[in-house]
Specification:
The chain has 87 residues and is of the alpha+beta class. Helices cover 31% and strands 33% of the residues. The protein has a 5-stranded antiparallel β-sheet.
């Protein structure tokens, strides 16, 4: 799955809070991890996108860690729980 921008995710996976929206997104995709990050087209600090990871440690997750276009990476969802862990 490619990244989804935050505004699109909010519109598609409605929720009163970010936690509710992330839970709905995870359930819809059947994923285990969701990251939030800032991309190069913004200020590199303000989160702009979510990245859904199906299997921890897979190639997509490794690419996220090493991409020069990903900034301010934060793990926001892990295995049914909302977390807020800066990576």
């Amino acid at each position: 799955m490619s990244s989804i921008d935050i505004k699109t995710a909010q519109a598609q996976f409605k929720g009163a809070t970010e936690a509710e929206m992330l839970s709905a997104m995870a359930q819809a995709y059947g994923c285990r991890l969701i990251y939030k990050y800032a991309n190069d087209y913004g200020d590199k600090l303000t989160p702009t996108d979510y990245k859904v990871i199906m299997t921890p440690g897979d190639a997509q997750e490794q690419a996220l860690f090493t991409s020069p276009y990903v900034h301010n990476l934060v793990l926001v969802y892990r295995d049914g729980r909302i977390v807020n862990e800066k990576v």
